Amino acid sequence: MADVHEFTSLRELRRLSAKRTYAMFASESLDNFPENEQVAKMRTNIRIRNEYKDYTSLPAVLLAQQAPVGPARPKTLAITAGPSQPTPSGNDRALTLAPSPLNGSSLNGTSGTNELAVGSLATSTNFAKALALHKQVKTVKPAYHPPWKLVRVISGHLGWVRSIAVEPGNKWFATGAGDRVIKIWDLASGELRLSLTGHISTVRGLAVSGRHPYLFSAAEDKMVKCWDLESNKVIRHYHGHLSGVYSLSLHPTLDVIVTAGRDATARVWDMRTKAQAMLLAGHTATIAD
């Protein structure tokens, strides 16, 4: 029996050749080819124009608020060529340029140098006044005082001091640090009067009330505490922050306290009822002093 030899069809060979060609050249990326410098510059200019076309000039309201810099300049300044001639009284700010000969020769054929005659610039009354005011302005120098000198170094905390508050009567001040302790110091002598413990993390904010014997503290343990300075104990807690509290402030006339921290919110508290009166949201990151 004779052997039967089967030959691959031309269509199949063409398909296999196209497949190998694609496998060989398809992996080469076009990103490696250098880009035309002019095309890249054009693309950058188009992108800048599309993104900043609305901000090329200030709005009319802001332009009106811009103060003029330096003395006012004359509104019209005419430059004319030819010999100086008297000008009308309405336009006394004109520069007159004398005709200059071309190629170093005068009109009568003799050699000479180019001459440029500039007429005098007559200043108007308003312009002269502006210049006079500008010359009269003097630089205000701050009052000199001798360099500050270090009087005392107060040490006692075991961590970084993160907050400080001075009592309205200037008799003592309080400090809070990374050692979770609030210390009360005598302002005149610098001696330690009292140490208050209760926070379990770094004390970030302190405030002393000028109308009540209260000291308020905020810390990274999400707690805001009210200390009674007559009994040296915590009498109120303000719960609500979802993370560390980094900032604290008292209202000067109302019994209101405002705190803010890492949860990107500011909270207003009623000092007496411990209730949250208001939640101020809008920040996207930590609020700190």
Q: Please list the strands of the largest sheet in the order they lie side by side.
A: 3-4-5-6
Order of helices and strands: HHHEEHEEEEEEEEEEEE
Helix-strand makeup class = alpha+beta
Q: Globular, elongated, flat, extended or rod-shaped: what is the shape? A: extended
Q: Radius of gyration, Cα only, in angstroms?
A: 40 Å
- Alpha plus pi helix count: 4
Mean pLDDT: 79
Main pleated sheet: 4 strands, antiparallel
Poorly predicted runs: 87-123
Which strand-content bin applies to the residues? 25-35%
The count of β-strands is 14
Q: Report the span from N to C terminus.
A: 100 Å
Helicity range of the residues? 10-25%
Can you tell me about this structure?
This protein has 289 residues and is of the alpha+beta class. The protein has four helices and 14 strands. It has helices spanning 10-25, 37-52, 60-65, 125-136, and strands at residues 78-81, 94-97, 161-166, 172-177, 181-186, 192-197, 203-208, 214-219, 224-228, 233-238, 245-250, 256-261, 265-270, 276-281. The strands form four sheets. The protein has a four-stranded antiparallel β-sheet, with no helix packed on it. It has a four-stranded antiparallel β-sheet with strand order 7-8-9-10, with no helix packed on it. The longest helix is centred in the first third of the chain and has 16 residues, at 10-25. The chain starts with 9 loop residues before the first helix and ends in an 8-residue tail after the last strand.
